[in-house]
Amino acid sequence: MEHYTNAAGRALAWHREYRNQMSQCRFDTIATHGVYSIQEALDFNQGSIIEPVYMATSQAYRDADEMEAALGYQIPTWCYARIANPTMYYLEGVLALLEGYGSGLETSCIATSSGMAAIQSAVDPFLVADRANPGKKMNFVASTQVYGGTFQQFSIRKDKERLIEWRKVINTTDIKEWESHIDVETRFLYGELPSNPGQAFFDIRKVADLAHKYGIPLIVDSTVATPALLRPLCHGADIVIQSVTKSLATSGFGIAGAVISRKNIVSRIDNPEMKADFATYLKLLPNRDNGPNLSPMNAVMALNDIRTIRMRMDTMSKSTMKVAGFLNDHKHIERVEYLGLKNHPLHELASRYLFLVDSEHDEQYGKPVNRYGHLMSFLIRGDAKMTREVFNAFTRIWRATDLGRIKSVATIPAISTHSQQGEEGRKLAGIPSNLIRLCVGVEHPDDIIRDLDTALGVLDGKKVYVSAPEFSAGGASSARLRKDCQ
Ligand SMILES: *Cc1c(COP(=O)(O)O)cnc(C)c1O
């Protein structure tokens, strides 16, 4: 056994050193290479310049000693793909480095089968029985302006089904409101920013300081910003959630999530292993037992897209700014919600946090540059029906409950992402029925503006020619299928 643990020690030291070297590189270099090295490719992967995809469920061992050491977590192993997998390892490695970029912090990451699984994985270890106070009802404090799935997970799966109270923060910029909800049974603070779709924002540093004053962690869903624009760990957050499905894996080939944590998180839960390295703890224990792991195929798809995250977020943010400016001046638009617009009430606060990473090292910019992402929403001056008419008239923008795509995508949250939570819940989350959420892709922004302008023309009584072909290029058409179904 000693032979294996010694060899493992040397291998771990090598990888640690390599990670350290990588962490000295600029963001784009890390995004492109991650923790997959030339040495590793040559020695173990036939020189392949792209990370290998290992589809196998399990790893074989040389002998009983190696197996025992591996299953006892005494040597690095991926033993069984519910726990770990080499391809997942590369995804986790790059995300840990990117979220920690510029912080000087040591970070770790666990990839999950979805963003929702990441949220569940991140919050559940704190929602455990308090042995000192058995029978006490526990709670957590979280903003209401969160993704619809998160709202459901918190309100139904936690609050309603398990009596774990969700103490709701309505105005996230009000630190006193956050503080007023905290007591001895509060397990964590949770916020999403910028929020999907409402663009809520809060002062991360202040909320993190507040959490730490009470000995609890701050968990932040940073999906909309991505590490290219914001790295909450740098501002004091303990744990970050990414729905990797979205802008990180922009091609739209699969669902994926990630939990990224700093070392030595703050928590009143008496679990030293959990606090020392939260993401690794999740990987080796709770997620091994619960099984929300990612598939290697989805991991490599995500890896491929992550390489270009910085340049994409730059281009998409610039285009979104242009589109937002156009809509802001349009007579049929009641209001545009985009943090980049100077008239947005949270513009100033967001501008202190949202920067294009490394813009100060960029030939083109040479100084810190604010970028606000590619998610925005706008409210039609009119009712739900008029909103649907405009929505139906898009010809370039796809109608889908999705975001972060390389192609522009729009949805009406009230009838899609946020439909399950009902009128009351939507009011809390700030989702009126005349709101359209738009996520701008990498098309030329003028074409997206033209599409919006034409669609808004329906409110002037202009006809928009939207026809479905009898047959699609691929053969079967939806018109045909509809007919067959009748
Ligand atoms: C989509 C989304 C999630 C959930 O992620 P999935 O990968 O769809 O499970 C969580 N948070 C935010 C902000 C999201 O946009």
Question: How is this structure best described in words?
Answer:
By secondary structure, this protein is of the alpha/beta class. It has two domains: 85-306, 3-Layer(aba) Sandwich (Aspartate Aminotransferase, domain 2); 309-485, Aspartate Aminotransferase, domain 1 (Alpha-Beta Complex). The protein contains 19 helices and twelve strands. It has helices at 2-23, 27-33, 38-44, 64-71, 86-100, 115-123, 148-162, 175-180, 204-213, 272-276, 278-284, 286-290, 296-306, 309-328, 347-351, 384-392, 422-429, 445-456, 478-485, and strands at 107-112, 139-143, 165-169, 186-192, 218-221, 239-242, 257-262, 333-337, 375-380, 398-399, 409-411, 435-439. Strand 4 (186-192), helix 9 (204-213) and strand 5 form a beta-alpha-beta unit. Helix 2 packs antiparallel against helix 5 (86-100), helix 5 runs parallel beside helix 13 (296-306) and helix 14 (309-328) runs parallel beside helix 18. The mean pLDDT is 94. Pyridoxal-5'-phosphate (PLP) binds at residues 114-116, 147, 149-150, 192, 196, 221, 223-224, 243, 245-246, 255, 257.
SSE map:
Layout: H1 2-23, H2 27-33, H3 38-44, H4 64-71, H5 86-100, E1 107-112, H6 115-123, E2 139-143, H7 148-162, E3 165-169, H8 175-180, E4 186-192, H9 204-213, E5 218-221, E6 239-242, E7 257-262, H10 272-276, H11 278-284, H12 286-290, H13 296-306, H14 309-328, E8 333-337, H15 347-351, E9 375-380, H16 384-392, E10 398-399, E11 409-411, H17 422-429, E12 435-439, H18 445-456, H19 478-485
Parallel strand pairs: 2-3, 2-4, 4-5, 5-6, 10-11
Antiparallel strand pairs: 1-7, 6-7, 8-9, 9-12, 11-12
Helix pairs in contact: 2-5, 5-13, 14-18
Residues 114-116, 147, 149-150, 192, 196, 221, 223-224, 243, 245-246, 255, 257 line the site of pyridoxal-5'-phosphate.
